[in-house]
Specification:
single chain, alpha+beta, Helix Hairpins, Heat Shock Protein 90, 3 domains, five-stranded antiparallel sheet, five-stranded mixed sheet, 16 strands, 54% helix, 19% strand, binds adenosine-5'-diphosphate
Amino acid sequence: MTKKLQKILAGMTVLLLFPVVIATIYEYVKINENEELISTVYKEQLETIVSSINSYTLDISDTWSTRLELWLKYPTDSNRLKKMVAENQSIKEIYLAKANKTYSLVYGRSPHPDLFSKLDSILNKYSKEIEQLKTYYQNGYRKLISVPGLDDETLLLFIAEDRDEKLNVFFVNIDLLAFFRNQVSPRIQSIAQEHFRIDLVDTTTNILLISSEPNASPMEQYDQKGSMWFFPTIKIGIGLKNQSIADMANRRIREGLRLMALVLLVIFIGIWFLFLSVKREIELARIKSEFISNVSHEIRTPLALISMYIETLEMGRIKTIEKVNEYYRIIGKETQRLTGMVNKILNFSRLESGRQKFDFDTCNLNIITQKVLDTYQFHLKNKGFDVKYFPADRLKPIRCDREAIADALINLIDNAIKYSRDIKKIEITTGTRKNYTFVEVKDHGPGIPKKKQKLVFDKFYRITTGHLAHEVKGTGLGLAIVNEIVKAHKGKVTLTSKPGEGCTFRLYFPILFTDKDLSNNNI
Ligand code: ADP
């Protein structure tokens, strides 16, 4: 490869790779940014879930306070109260502290003999918070607070107005676990569905109170944590069911990187193919220019000879008839050489452009080969060649253009003659292999090195190393013509050769099966 080609390719690679590398880095940074954005959006979504669980809890207690307030205003309607506690099994007792600080047990059994004095001390302890609740109430907001109950239970405190528009305090003693299980859990299940897992954890004991997952234990890390508004020691933990957001982000980054690596690989492969095709084009251009100078030289030499001999003959200087005849013979031979070369070029151009019309017929390779040998016998003998022909018995017919196949065969025999040196022996064999019949031309010339065996079928290609290259004239079109002819017959051509041991060219043609063959399964 020339230095110039190397430079072009290096420039091309840099030109292509530079933007790709920049784009890759940019994409990588972008992916991270996108992941962060997705992460933020996801976290915000989880925060909404936390708020939604809290508002749901607020709704429940709000309903309780509304119903209790109604009962307070119409105490004779005891059904209202009964219905409420029946529907909410987590309610253990309900106490009432009237505006005048008198206490009563609204529902349930008194868990303590000195219940009212205990309620009194609670009222005193949370007097500030209760004042705040009252202010909220007066401004139209029904708020509540939770305080530790008389035993382990939790008390919900809220304000309710009686018929005299006095503000009273309700104490609803609830079994918190039952409240979460009965009231909150169905809501959590419906939010979590199959994607999320939502847990309520008691942070003082780290006990999992409820979870949207059956038989779960607390997770080590949640994607989002939030407190319950009324129960500050209870945390809401949310995570993705089968993976964390970090896992998901990592997976996406890995996928992105894999995709980019694939793109880079494709680009590298593309550059490599481009490299090969540019190299090939440059090689072809070189071969073409060599062909032109070669052919010009080949044409000029016989032309010069022909005109020189004609001039000499015209001058009448040649005295003997033998000499005159010899000159005519040389003129004829050189004209033939010229015609052969021009024909070859035209023939190839027709084949390559697809203008060649084939006259397909049912033929037998043995007969075609025999005819070619009959015509060539004299020429071969003249050149001192010993030609052996080994025709196969009962060769199956093929569909072919006789002239074209004979042409291909002549090209191979011509090459065998041209390139053979000391051992002037050619063996021609026909035979059958799988669904093909073949004809083979074997010589004992210099052979073709493995590396060049594919290239010799390329148009204009000639081996330029070794003494034969300069000694033997040619166009580099013979084997390309053979290849085109075989291709047009849906056949194939193979070359087996080792340097110094000659060449064996084999032309395969598909057998033309008759209906009889097919019905006899005789294939
Ligand atoms: P040409 O013979 O006109 O150069 P071909 O296409 O027939 O072109 O052959 C291409 C090249 O293959 C030749 O230049 C020659 O180097 C090599 N070649 C073809 N046939 C033979 C052979 N029988 N023995 C050795 N080399 C051969």
